[in-house]
Fold:
Amino acid sequence: MPEDESFDLAGCLARVRERDQSAARALVEHLYPLVIRIIRAHLPRRVAEEDLAQDIFLKMFTRLEQYQGAVPFPHWVSRIAVTTCIDQLRAQKRRPEFRWADLSENEADVLDAVLTNEDAVETGDALAARELVHRLLDQLKPDDRLVIQLLDLEQKTIAEISALTGWNQSLVKVRAFRARRKLQKLFRELEEKERP
Structure:
């Protein structure tokens, strides 16, 4: 998150700890872009972003006394946001099966192009391709989805993922390997269901 040079985070935190409501509002406004970006990157679209953002900020304020300053405050808030997203994914009821019929016409066209090894997907189908990727990701367990999202889609390093999630680096690598295998399996199953 680019730092706003004019924002005095330390001073704002001190005023928030003294129950200054205007400082609390300023802190939320400062951190909102970071929190909403994390929410959008880690959750399916059917989740109410604003409700989840409020939940994250509520957790931040209730745990503020636990913040010791060992890591930058935005990083500490990021960890709360990622953990809250994981919890939300775990809480969602997941459909047990994903079928070709669940795809929109554009998504089916994109998948068909991939399966027939066409070299390029038309730019008009880029949104459909993105939606298809998210549908496949939605079939993964929350922790697996998170690691694929961070590693492959957001291009974060193993060390960065470890810092964000609290998992050791070996666990991140194992989860990524297993999640990729599961995605491949889901993709093959989807293909087999529709092919004669």
Observations:
- Confidence is low (pLDDT under 50) at residues 94-98.
- Residues 1-93 form a domain with the Rna Polymerase Sigma Factor; Chain: A fold (CATH 1.10.1740.10).
- The longest helix spans residues 169-194.
